[in-house]
Structure formats: C-alpha cells, structure tokens
Amino acid sequence: MKDSHERQTMNKQPNRNRKSLGRFLFYAICLLFIFIVCRFSYIAIGKSVQNVNLSSQAQKLYTANETLKAKRGTIYDANGQAIAEDTSVYSLYVVLDKRQVGLNGEKLYATNKEKIATVLAKYLPISRKQALKTLNPSKKNTFQVEFGTAGQNISLTTKQKIQKAHLSGVNFIQQEARLYPNGIFASHLVGLAESKTNKAGETSLIGTMGLEQAFNKQLTGTNGSQKIKKDMYGYQLPGTKQKYKKAKNGDNVYTTLDTRLQTLLETEMSNVQDQVKANSMNAVLMNAKTGAILAATQRPTFNASTKAGLGQIWRNTLVQDAYEPGSTMKIFTLASSIDSGNYNGNATYQSGRYTIGTQTVPDWNTSGWGTITYDKGFALSSNVAMAHLEQQMGSKTWKKYIDRFHFLKSTHSGLPGELTGSIAFKRPIEQADTSFGQGIQVTFFQMLQALTAVSNNGKMMKPYVISKVVNPNTNKTVAKYDPKTVGNPISAKTAKAVRKHMEDVVYKSYGIGGDYKMSGERVAVKTGTAQVSNGSGYLSGDDSYLYSVAAMVPASNPKYVMYITMKQPHLGSKTATQLLASIMKPVMARALQEDAETKNTTDAKMPAVTGKSVTKATSALTKAGATVTTLGSGSKVLSQSVKTGTTLYKGQRVFLKTGGTVALPSLTGWSKGDVVKLAQLEGLKLTVSGDGYVTKQSVKAGTTVGSGAGLTVTLKQNK
C-alpha cells in the first residue's frame, strides 16, 4: 500500500509542473500580446518611433521633390542679339558592368561596343579606334568609362543624334553652361559665368568677371520646385495634387555694344597685335554725345567659348589698370589754358628744352623746332609748350581743372575693381610733368569720360555699357541707364577751339597725325607717346613706350570718339601712328556708314513666322530688311532663330528651320557670328580660321549635311 501511495504521489508531480508551466506561458503570451497592442496603439496615435515621425518619413518616401532650375538671364547687344546666354550641355558615359539590369530584365550595360564606337566617332571628336580602346579598359570589373573632353560639352542636337542609335549602356548627364556665340567679343568686359557647386551639392552659374560678375545678382534667377505624391512604382497617386512653385528666370541685361562694330574692332586689333606683339592694347569706340560704349576690347584677350587665352590676363584693363597717358593728356592742358583765359596761341616760346628749378623738361625732339607759336607746339606735341601753359595757369588752376575733368575719381562704371588713379603734384617739376601726361596715372574710362567734354561741347558724359535690365517673367524694365551728364568742366566755345587744334594735328603740314586722315570726313586727333614707368623711373629702349590716339569724327560736330592705347609694341617697318590708324579708320568709317544707313531705315521688329509657309515667312522678313537663310527641305517654318519682337538691324541674318534634309548654303561673305549660329543650329563640328568674313568653306555649297558633320571656314577682313 505504501508503495502504491508513493507511486501515485510521484505521478501527480509532473502534472503539477506541466500546469504551472502552462499557466506561465499563458500569462507571458497575454502580457506580450497586451504589450504589442499597446505599442501599436502608441505608434498609431503618436505616429513616431524613437523620435522619428513615421508620417513625415512616409511622406518623404512617397513624395518626389524636384527642383525646377531657373534660367540665368541673357546678355544682349544693342540690337537684341544674344552675346551671352544659357545653354544645356551634356557629358557622356558608358556603363560596362554586366550586373546592371533593369526590373524588366533590360540590359543597362554596353552590349555592342563596336556599334557604340562607330556612332561616337561619327558625332564626337574622337576616332573609332580611340573609342574602342576606352570601351575596353585594361582594368577588369570597371563599372563605367568616360571619354575625356570628347565626351563633354555635348550639344542637345548631338545628344539626340546619338540617342537615336539606341545604344545600350550609353548615358548622359545634363550640365548648365554659358554660351558665348561670338568667341572673342569684348571678352573681359562681358566677362564669364562658370558652373559652381555649393555645400548642398547644387550647381549654378556664377559670374566671375566683367558684366557677368557685376550683374550676377540680377542675372541669377530663383529656382522653383514641384512635389508629387507617388506610389511605390513612381507614378503619381490618383486624386493627389502637385505642389508647384514656378522658377523665376534671371533678368536680361541689354548692353550698348554694336555686334558689327565690335566684330570689326576685334579683327583690326588682332591684326595689329599679330604684327607687334604688344604687352597690352586697349580700344574703345564711344558715342560722342551720350557716352554709350559701342565697341570695346583689350589685348591680351580670350575666347569666351573655348576659354583659350584666359590664363594670360584676368584684369579688365579698361578700369582695373592705371597708367600714365602721355601726350593725349595735352588735350586737357590746352582746354584748361583756353578755358581759364590764359591761352595765347600766337605767342611764341623756345622749343626743345625748358628748365624748371634744377630740372629740365625735354621735347620728344630734343633739338626742338626753334622759336614757335603755342598753336604749332600743340600740333607738334611739344612737352615744353604744355609745361609753359601749366606755369602760366598756375598749379592751383591746373589742379582745379584736373579735378573738374574727374581724373583721380572713379567713373562708377559698375564694373568690378575700378581704380581711381594717382598723381605726384608737390614740386613744380611734378606739376609741369602732369601737363604732358607724366606723373599722373589715369584709367581708360577716365580718359573716355574727359574726352566727352571736348566732343560734346563742354558737357561731360559718363561712359556706360548697359542700357537696361528687363525682367523676362513680367517683360518689364526694372532698371534703365540713360545718358548721364557728370560735369561741365569747360565751355562749348573752349571745346570747339580744342577740336580745331586737334584738326591741326592731322591737316597742318607740320602736324604729326597725317596718318589719321579719312576720306570724306574731317578728323580731330591727338596722338600720344609716353615712356613706360617701372615704379621708380622710366624704362629705356625702343620698345618701352605707350602709344595712344584720341580721335573724334566728324571734327566739327563729333558723333564718335575713339581712344586706343598700345603698350610696349615691337615695332617693325610700320610706325605706331600707322598701326593705330589701321585700327581707327576702318572702325570709324563703318560707324559712319551704319549711321547713314540708320537714317534711311526705320526700326523693324522680328515677326512671328513659325508655322507659316516658307514663302510667306521669307516675304515678311525681306520686308523687314532681314537676310533669310532656310535650313531644311520642308514647306513650313518649324522654328525661327530670332525671338519675335526683337529689333532687327538692316541685313540681319535670320535662320528658319523647316525640317527634312539640310543643304549647306554658300557661306561666302558671312560673318563669324552667323557661321557659329549655323553650326549650333545644325550640330556641325566647326573650325574657324581667321577673322572677319568668310572667303572659303571646306564643304561645297548645296551638300547635304547632318549633325556631327565637319565644317572648316576661312575668314578675312574686307576693307
């Protein structure tokens, strides 16, 4: 019995253990269930986990945020032609990694390298052999390859041509870029805008010099954005709305530059620079009445399209360099003497040398011309004559006129880094030196401003290069720059008398400016030759001078002022005056010719011809005075190269794209700008030799051309 009782007790013990374990597990599961319910309830109500808002994260996961890039404003010439504008360029890369496969099994890597190489060689500046070498790198497991400069800065047209070949693995990255269609074209004045990346990884165009820098705030737009709610596949969810903020494009800046005159000036400056290899050169053509800059350039310069030459000099030497002007300063010495009532042109003096204290003022002809009148002394550019005039006026009067002409002050051009100049004016010899342009340093713009007082009958005008700033979003003018009078340093009578003396420099038998005579117009001129300062003294040698000329045409009532400087040229068989005249005369003649043409024509606006028949469009444009070039074999206009409403100048070339095959027109007589525009529109690989107007083309007129076709043109200046 006892054994039986013990066996029953031992059998009941496991049962109790199982029941206890079962209860424990039951309660544990209940507690876990309660915890999970509470946790999910907390998350559902609070919508946050570990301080992370799940609702916000879901919104981010299923909301596409897209930045709408604003366009940088365009810089235009005086006739509404773009001289700096935004464009999209592309960089190309090819994926080689065979693991790159799409969701639908699509192969996203290069499957036919031979075909890729053939297509790239057709449209890019790379050989098929080189393309294949790049596509077959020595390093195994290369994810992707690029093609150096050949695969960069690809135009939209070329990109589309490559894409039409449906090449697996070929991809493009869009990049912002600035287009300067005219190449070397007032490059330091217009400046550059380059792509910069900020800390957030966003890229944008930033002005780094010239007008691009000075007006960077106005030219820069404000990016927009759009938010779209999407499903897991990237499609917009039905019933949801887009949150859209429109991009605001940057303001457009209109300059006073005349493309035709600017192109000619660039050509003539390059011709002279090629001959003499000057250390530096500057030239500006200005409206004599208003101060508007019509053409301006410097040497060395650079091609804004290719950046070639940019490393030679970054400074805009029109405002960022100060120099001793030399004998062109005598214009203002003479004007001050006449205006102050001290001048007697018939009085005589002994030329050659003049002693002031223990110092001597020499003439450039140290032997002099004997005893001559002050009138003759000015025409001969006598330093001694000017020193006498300064002594007669007195240093206080002379300094008063220096101030009245606004030397040693900024012209407030708005261009970056403008200098004010300097003067040494304590000792009598220093005061006399300034009368013939030594011991005083000025800027190019200061000289231009002072010259307007003489050309504009005493009314001194501020030089300016911007006419207006327009908001393209509203088409309203937000800033207007009208001619501005900044002083009246001399009377109209004095200005006329000075111009008469400047005519003597050209037309008197003893004048030294005979090279500046022009057919059909009288010219008022003052030449200049100054030794180049090295800081403590003056350089010596035949190549140590700064030559200059200030010219006004027509002399009796000037419409144009031109000022040119040439520093340290290596003169050969031609004199400095002959070289400077070879720049001045053709540019002045072209300006006068344009002025005559303008009088006989009225301003015409670009009509809207897109969608019209080629016949009707051509007729409308011909009536407006434009030159029409049709690109394509279609019968209707698909696009026009000039925006509707733009002012057309006489003979301006307008391109009409009609679709179909394009036959290359005869380019003889075309300007560089027109050829560049054609190449851009058709995606041609253009090579330009020379400057001026087309005389030869490598592809015969009438030949069918397509994107990627090569074209070489030779340009020469017609005089």
UniProtKB/TrEMBL annotation:
<feature type="transmembrane region" description="Helical">
    <location>
        <begin position="21"/>
        <end position="45"/>
    </location>
</feature>
<dbReference type="InterPro" id="IPR005543">
    <property type="entry name" value="PASTA_dom"/>
</dbReference>
<dbReference type="InterPro" id="IPR036138">
    <property type="entry name" value="PBP_dimer_sf"/>
</dbReference>
<dbReference type="InterPro" id="IPR012338">
    <property type="entry name" value="Beta-lactam/transpept-like"/>
</dbReference>
<dbReference type="Pfam" id="PF03793">
    <property type="entry name" value="PASTA"/>
</dbReference>
<dbReference type="Pfam" id="PF00905">
    <property type="entry name" value="Transpeptidase"/>
</dbReference>
<dbReference type="InterPro" id="IPR001460">
    <property type="entry name" value="PCN-bd_Tpept"/>
</dbReference>
<dbReference type="InterPro" id="IPR005311">
    <property type="entry name" value="PBP_dimer"/>
</dbReference>
<dbReference type="InterPro" id="IPR050515">
    <property type="entry name" value="Beta-lactam/transpept"/>
</dbReference>
<keyword id="KW-0812">Transmembrane</keyword>
<comment type="similarity">
    <text>Belongs to the transpeptidase family.</text>
</comment>
<protein>
    <submittedName>
        <fullName>Penicillin-binding transpeptidase domain-containing protein</fullName>
    </submittedName>
</protein>
<dbReference type="Pfam" id="PF03717">
    <property type="entry name" value="PBP_dimer"/>
</dbReference>
<keyword id="KW-1133">Transmembrane helix</keyword>
<feature type="domain" description="PASTA">
    <location>
        <begin position="660"/>
        <end position="719"/>
    </location>
</feature>
<feature type="domain" description="PASTA">
    <location>
        <begin position="600"/>
        <end position="659"/>
    </location>
</feature>
<keyword id="KW-0472">Membrane</keyword>
